[in-house]
Amino acid sequence: MESLPAVGRLDALVLKLRHPLAKIRFRSLHALLFKLQERLVCWQELEPLQNVLIPALLANLEPPLELKTLHVLQLLLQSQSEIFVASLQHHGAAQKLQRAANANPELQSTYEKVKNHVLKSLS
Q1: b/e map of 72-83 (b: 16 or more CB within 10 Å)?
Q2: Is residue 1 part of a domain?
Q3: Which of 63, 79, 90, 115 could form a disulfide with 97 if both were Cys (CB 3.0 to 4.6 A apart)?
Q4: How large is the greatest C-alpha to C-alpha distance in the chain, in angstroms?
Q5: pLDDT at 1
Q6: Tell me: the pLDDT tens digits for 38-58?
Q7: Is 19 within 8 Å of 28 (Cβ atoms)?
Q8: N- to C-terminal Cα separation, the chain
Q9: Is 41 among the domain residues?
Q10: How many H helices and E strands in the chain?
Q11: Number of separate domains in the chain
Q12: Which of 53, 58, 66, 76 is nearest to 26 (CA)?
């Protein structure tokens, strides 16, 4: 029996990032971060899902999900994928990252690094 294509498996995971229950969003975010860190999934597999993934990640930039969300965003930006950068720009990531940085002084430097990476990639 053939396994589901990677995009099919990831689609369900990405959709759960928008689930109304924070616990489900947390588990999905944790699973996505783990898969990216362990290279069980490559960023190219996520590119087709960027129209759902990027807004979902930006929506999760608040406690208790913000640290894991920032890590996922950092990994996606490290890929240097023009598709992710364009999607981040389209969805107003710089402004959302700045607002989140202002709201959380402890993570401000991390937010600034991600925001600057987005802005630098656009020029």
Answers
A1: bbebbbebebeb
A2: no
A3: 115
A4: 50
A5: 35
A6: 999 998 999 999 999 999 999
A7: yes
A8: 47
A9: yes
A10: 8, 0
A11: 1
A12: 66
